[in-house]
């Protein structure tokens, strides 16, 4: 009975996951889903689901092909029945709780994202204790009952004191065996993710909400592949500064845009605190594509070629479409920078978020 219940529950869970996947785009673009900080569970609205089962009618009720009737006689009730407001319940919507980790996994499955291949894992290590052997001395908390009993039994058999009719085995001090503990360095893979965003006047609330949603799911996918992840946030208009996460998604400035200021600051922090030999570096820059002009574009190319791209696993530039933005920077990068770890993505609206995540993470870097 327990196995049957577990089988039915798993079947139900699979159906729910299928319903969520069918409308995945709408679910992940709901900003309120990620509005509560510190929560590991999200609620997904899905239609009421009932598992199919046989239903038996009452005795002598009749059915199709039974009882009197002529060809063409309608089945069911008499004329007029079934019209009006009706009294049957309608289609219900229920909230299903799904963990952030499971939702992230579903996004990965739906987009067919490959697993990330970390670099530098052998360079960064942590200490982990392991039981590596047995010794004759040690604390009682580490005493091995199995090995101690075996030693006592061996001693009694060899001395002739073991009686099979009364198989009593009594360990003495020299029979005691203890597990030995050894600290060993083990490789770990850590990552740092830089999120850069243009906060000039042309980046409105809708553009920032798109960035907020996309960066949330990108962050969770990366975290699923690393032992430790740190996130750093940089905003820029004509100048760049580092901020906390809340400020990153709420700040709005006016004035011009100087993209190189953000690239310069990200390079300085990465080189000072996250050496490429030890850390997996990810940089995601979101902007509407406006920049001060050709002079600053050239500075951006230089920073990308000489400092950011050589150190980064992935540099993603996401251009969020806005009415007041020219979008020229996307084309400039496309023409002047060629690198395997540079990924460009155009994000026209919320419906483009899934495709943009696929652009950025589809190569498994």
Structural class: alpha/beta
Would you give the CATH topology of the largest domain? Rossmann fold
CATH superfamily of the largest domain: von Willebrand factor, type A domain
**Beta-strand proportion:** 15-25%
Number of helices: 10
Which sheet architecture does the biggest sheet show?
6 strands, mixed
**Rg over alpha carbons:** 32 Å
Report the average pLDDT across residues.
79
Order of strands across the main sheet: 7-6-5-8-9-10
Can you count the beta strands?
Answer: 10
Q: Which class of the largest domain in CATH terms?
A: Alpha Beta
Order of helical and strand elements: HHEEHEHEEHEEHHEHEHEH
What's the CATH architecture name of the largest domain?
3-Layer(aba) Sandwich
Report on the architecture of this protein:
- The protein is of the alpha/beta class and 365 residues long.
- The protein has 3 domains: 69 residues; 60 residues, no CATH class; 172 residues, 3-Layer(aba) Sandwich (Rossmann fold).
- Helix content is 35%, strand content 22%.
- It is flat, with a radius of gyration of 32 Å.
- The mean pLDDT is 79.
């Amino acid at each position: 009975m327990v196995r049957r219940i577990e089988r039915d529950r798993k079947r139900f869970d699979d159906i729910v996951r299928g319903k969520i996947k069918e409308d995945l785009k709408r679910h992940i673009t709901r900003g309120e889903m990620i509005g509560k900080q510190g929560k590991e569970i999200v609620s997904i609205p899905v239609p009421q689901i009932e598992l199919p089962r046989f239903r038996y009618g009452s005795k002598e009720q009749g059915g199709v092909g039974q009882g009197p009737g002529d060809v063409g006689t309608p089945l069911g009730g008499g004329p007029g029945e079934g019209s009006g407001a009706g009294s049957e319940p309608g289609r219900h919507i229920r909230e299903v709780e799904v963990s952030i980790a499971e939702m992230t996994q579903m996004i990965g499955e739906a987009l067919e994202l490959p697993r990330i291949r970390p670099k530098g894992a052998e360079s960064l290590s942590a200490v982990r204790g392991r039981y590596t052997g047995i010794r004759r001395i040690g604390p009682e908390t580490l005493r091995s009952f199995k090995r101690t009993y075996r030693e006592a039994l061996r001693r009694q058999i060899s001395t002739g004191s073991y009686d099979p009719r009364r198989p009593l085995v009594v360990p003495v001090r020299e029979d005691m065996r203890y597990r030995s503990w050894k600290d060993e360095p083990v490789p770990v893979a850590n990552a740092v993710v830089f999120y850069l965003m243009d906060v000039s006047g042309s980046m409105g609330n809708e553009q920032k909400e798109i960035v907020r949603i996309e960066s949330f799911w990108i962050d969770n996918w990366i975290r699923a592949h690393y032992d430790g992840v740190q996130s750093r946030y940089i905003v820029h208009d004509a100048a760049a500064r580092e901020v906390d996460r809340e400020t990153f998604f709420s700040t709005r400035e006016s004035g011009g845009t100087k993209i190189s200021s953000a690239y310069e600051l990200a390079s300085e922090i990465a080189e000072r605190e996250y050496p490429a030999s030890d850390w997996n570096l990810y940089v995601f820059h979101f902007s509407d594509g406006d920049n001060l002009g050709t002079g600053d574009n050239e500075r951006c190319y230089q920073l990308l070629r000489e400092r950011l791209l050589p150190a980064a696993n992935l540099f993603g530039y996401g251009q969020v479409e806005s009415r007041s933005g020219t979008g020229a920077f996307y084309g400039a990068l496309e023409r002047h920078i060629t690198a395997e770890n540079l990924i460009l993505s155009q994000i026209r609206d919320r419906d483009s978020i899934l495709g943009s995540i696929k652009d950025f993470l589809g190569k498994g870097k």
